[in-house]
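Thread: "does anyone have the structure for this chain?"

Original post by V.I.:
We have the sequence but no experimental structure in hand. Need at least a predicted one for the grant figures.
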Amino acid sequence: MVLINSNTGEKERIENEAAWPPLGLLYLGSVLQMDGHEVKIIDNAREGSPVERLADRVKSEKPDIVGISALTPTFRQAIKIAKAVKEKNPEVRLIFGNYQSTFEYKRLLENYSIVDFVVLGEGERTLTELVRALEKENEIKRIKGIAFRKKNRVIKNPPEEPIQDLDKLPFPDRSLLEQEYHSELVGLLGTSGKFTTLLSSRGCPYACRYCACSAFSLRRVRFRSPKNVAAEMEQLYSQGYEEVGFVDDNLLLNRKRVEKICEILRTRKVKLNLWAEGRVDQASEETLKKLSRAGCRTIYFGIESASRKVLDYYGKNITPEMSRKAVSNAKKAGIENVIGSFIVGAPIETREDVRKTFDFALSLREMDFPQMNLLNLSPGMELWNRAVKDGQLDEGKYWDAAVPAVSVLPSLLNEGELNEMVNGFYQEFIERPSYLISQIWKTLKSEYRMKILLANLRSGRGLKSIKQLWGG
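Reply from O.Q.:
Generated one for you, C-alpha cells below.
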C-alpha cells in the first residue's frame, strides 16, 4: 500500500525542507505494518515532485491500494495526484482521508468517481479494517467510519469511536520517511539539527470558531501517559534527533501531565530542543519553567487579536492581558523564542481594530516574532457553517478550498487592504532599532540561536530571507 501526503501545488518541483513530518500517515503506516501489510509513504509536501513523476513512482511500487491525505489547502492538488495515479494504475483502489475529506466526503464522492472510499476521522482502526476487507474481498458495509458509493448513491457507515487509550498505538515509524525535516520561520530555518514532531494528545475541548479541530475531534481530548510520551522521546534521542516539536491541539491543557513528562525527561537525561504550542490562559510560569528546564526553546501562543469584540467573535475566551502575561511568563521561564500567532480579517474588523492588534504586537517587547494570518474559512469551522446557514457563502462553489473571510462575507475591509497592512506591519516590527539590537544580543548569548544562524548561513537561506523581509 502507498500512502501519499499531498502538497499545495504552489511549490511543485521544489523540495520543501521546512515541511513537517506527516504524523498521521506515520501512525497509519505503523499500524498497517503491525497488521502485516507492506507500506510505502511518499511525503510530497516535503519532496514537491511533479504530479506525473509522482504517479510514475506510485506505479513502480505496484500497489493495490493508495491512500491520499489532504487538508483543505492541499485538497485540489490531492485530486490532481489522484487523477494521475488512477490513470497510470486503473485497477488501484483510491482512499482519501484527513480533515477536508471527512467534512466534505459527500461532495468528494459525488464529484470524483476515481475516489473509491473516504476514511472519516481518525484512521488507525478504520483504515486497517478497510484494507483487510479489500484484500480479502470481504463485505465493507459493517466497517465503521467510512463513506463510499453504491449504485451512484453515497453511503456513510456509522462512525468509529475515537481511540481512547492512545498508549496502545505504536510509536510512529519515522524510518518510513525518506528525507530529513526542518522547521521554518519567515523563510529562515528554525532548527539547527535533525528534527521531527510528536503528538502527545489528541483533540481539543474548546470551540474557537475559526478552527475545525473541535469538529474533527468532537471536542473530546485524549492523553497519552507521561511515561509513554517520554519513552518515544527517549527513542528519538537515541536515534540522533536533536529537536522535537509538539503538535498537540492543546499541549498545556493538563498541567500536571506536562510537568510529569518534563520530570521524566530530566531524570532520564533526554536532551532535546523542544518546540511547544499553548493557550495563553494556561501558560503558568511554573509549568513553563519546567518545560524550559526540559529543553523547550520555542513556544507559540495563539494571541489572535487585541480587540475584545474580535476575540469574542472568534469564541477564543481569552483577553489581551492574558496574552501579555503568557509572553512574560515564558521569558521569565527562560524560553528563548516566544512567537505570537495573530489573526486579522474578521468581517467585523475595522482598519482601527487591525491597527490596534498591530500596536499590541509591537508593545509585546518580550515577544521574539509575530505571525500575522488572514482569517480563512474552510469546511468544519463554525464560522464556515454559520456563513453557509446565513446564505453568505456558496458552499457548492468553495467547498474544496479555503477562502479569505473578507472575500465572501460582508466586511469592512478587503483582502488587498489587509495584505498591504500586514506587509507594512512586518517591516515596522523588524525595522525597530530596539528590536534588532535585542535580537542580536539574544543570539550572541545563545548557543542554540547561534547554531540556527550558522545553519541558515550555510544553506544560503539567511541572506535571502533578510532581503525578502526588507523588500529586496
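V.I.: this helps a lot. Residues 182-469 form a domain with the pyruvate-formate lyase- activating enzyme fold (CATH 3.80.30.20).
O.Q.: and The chain has two domains: 2-156, 182-469.
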